[in-house]
From TrEMBL:
InterPro entries: AB_hydrolase_1, AB_hydrolase_fold, AB_hydrolase_sf
Protein name per Swiss-Prot or TrEMBL: Alpha/beta hydrolase
Lineage of producing organism: Bacteria, Pseudomonadati, Bacteroidota, Flavobacteriia, Flavobacteriales
One function term, GO molecular function aspect: hydrolase activity
Alphabetized UniProt keyword annotations: Hydrolase
Organism annotation: Flaviramulus aquimarinus
Pfam families linked to this entry: Abhydrolase_1 (PF00561)
Every AB hydrolase-1 domain range: 27-274
Length: 298
């Protein structure tokens, strides 16, 4: 985890320090992490990705190694504003995006902004992975409900009472039966959550899970109307956003491109089966290139 932190730098955005990493060479690839940890979740696929792409990533405000203001209204709008700020800082005009968990919702907002010409960059493609794209199919864990749907004082207390043992149980419940997290990974996740007293505001970030309800119609419409190539890579065993989410994607999205991993892979495919994630992502990129070439020839 220390080595991961040493890869990155921080940049001040609106008075807050935001942790980011930029590494590799080749086509641009922005990767977005999930809740409640940080970019460290991409560690197992990182080296392979930076061999093929210029990879950009950052820890959202309130998470990981970025600042964690306690009296702050966290929002998807702010996350997208930070994406745009960083992309301008990095000097990027266009990028592909790979996203997981909370990151898929940030991309949904970016897609809606794209249709309204509100981003400072062009999205070349989107790969979603195990996230709550559609709230009518999303099945949050009890700990998520308690942290994010309780009145703020109760959420604050529950965040304070969260122990490593409870966190371990919660994480284990969304991993596949044969790809359970190691004690080392649990310890690393625990340290990341507690960095800069982040555990104390876990309930504030968690509230974004249900804030998605306010954006569903606009986001789904954007996914249905965009011309940007998309795919959904899915660990089917995930009780939150597994096979049921993949099936809903097929129902709602025109010409759906769904790539299912092995049936016993859960919520964190990039940790549980990094080889297959890399394989499916490369397949998706080949499909985009083949389509582009066909359109060019036509």
């Amino acid at each position: 985890m220390v080595a991961w932190k040493n890869k990155g730098r921080t940049l001040e955005i609106n008075g807050h320090q935001v942790f980011y990493i930029k590494e590799g060479s080749g086509p641009n690839l922005l990767i977005l992490h999930g809740y409640p940890f940080n970019t460290f979740e991409w560690k197992s696929v990182w080296e392979n990705l930076v061999n093929d792409y210029t990879v950009f990533t950052f820890d959202y405000l309130g998470m990981g190694f970025s600042d964690k203001p306690k009296d702050h209204d966290y929002s998807f709008h702010e996350h997208c504003e930070m994406v745009n700020f960083l992309i301008e800082f990095w000097g990027i005009k266009h990028t592909h995006i790979l996203s997981h968990d909370l990151g898929v919702s940030i991309v949904q907002e970016l897609l809606a902004r794209d249709l309204a010409s509100q981003n400072c960059f062009k999205i070349q493609s989107v790969a979603f992975m195990n996230g709550g794209l559609f709230m009518d199919s999303y099945k949050p864990r009890m700990i998520q409900r308690l942290l994010s749907q309780s009145p703020k004082p109760i959420g604050k207390l529950l965040s304070k009472l969260l122990t490593k043992k409870k966190l371990k149980k919660s994480i284990q419940s969304v991993f596949g039966p044969y790809t359970q997290p190691t004690d080392k990974l649990i310890n690393q996740f625990w340290d990341i959550l507690n960095y800069n007293d982040g555990k104390s505001i876990a309930y504030l970030i968690g509230r974004l899970v249900f804030d998605k309800l306010n954006h569903q119609e606009r986001w789904i419409s954007a996914m249905q109307n965009t011309k940007i190539p998309m795919c959904f890579m899915n660990g089917p065993f995930d009780p939150n956003s597994g096979i049921h989410m993949a099936n809903r994607y097929k129902e709602l999205i025109p010409n759906p491109n769904v790539k299912l991993l092995w049936q016993d892979i859960g919520h964190w495919p990039q940790i549980e089966d990094p080889g297959s994630v890399l394989l499916y992502y490369e397949e998706f990129r080949r499909e985009i290139n083949n389509t582009s070439n066909r359109n060019y020839l036509d």
